[in-house]
Amino acid sequence: MSALLDVDHVNKRFTLGGVLSHEYVDAVIDADFSLERGKPEIFTIIGESGSGKTTLARMILGLETLTSGQILFEGEAVPTSGSGSRRHAFMAKVQPVFQNPFEAFNPLKRVDRYLESTARSFLGIAEQGAVEAAMDEALQKVGLTLAEVGGRYPHELSGGQLQRAAIARALVCNPSLLIADEPVSMVDASLRMAIVNLLRSLREDFGVTVIYITHDLATAYYISDRILIMQKGRVVETGPARVVLDNPQHPYARLLKASVLSTADAGHGRLQPAAELVAECDDLLGRAGDSRLVAQDDGRQVRVYS
After folding, report:
1. From 1.10.150.530, 3.10.129.10, 3.40.50.300, 3.30.70.930, which CATH number describes the 5-216 domain?
2. Whole-model pTM?
């Protein structure tokens, strides 16, 4: 049986300054992982801004072309935006949820119209009663109802309601894979756990595999089955989430954990991560071209340097 998703040694290089320019940025370097079919999980990609995690997500969605490598979904290459019927079939199974719900919805268009168009396009139903039933079913999965959302514009919903509506729109077509790119970063702190718990419910109650993209170690620790940590385009550590986050091995992974404020340090003023970790990470970046991921006995892989 083929994997649900197979990211096979994927690279993405952006050329700067035009076609003839010799300047470039390697946004993703040799990303390699797979998700099992029939085994729903929350697979978290974590890293700071510029780590390559969003570029990787866009390649998985077929919104960004690969420089090299391949990405397979259910054994077939991910179709790009110009692939017609293959693209339509792919998007019925793989749906995105983006960072800012207020940018995902046109302020002049009712929120329920997005769910309606998704139902008609991907479920192939035309009868209004069936369309509304599909919309209401998806909304109920995220703790809303069509009666609450119907006829309302984005500004008439709270940020938390709007993000849940965005997730509901993605769920209308019953996807097997949801790619959630920083879905809680634009939501009030009081609502973040509601969204995070919703993602966990999608895995446990509805069998949806979620790729959760974030820079928030706390929510990653709470909901992730596996985790992949990226630094400047490269995977530096990956494996079972609790194994990696309880005792990170790569200096950058340790730096991320050290950067999280702890209640144990309250009142001591230790807001900066250890200077030696910062210096070690900077040194390893210069040696990254001569490095590789090495499997460890506890199920993780850690990047080592020659």
Report:
1. 3.40.50.300
2. 0.92
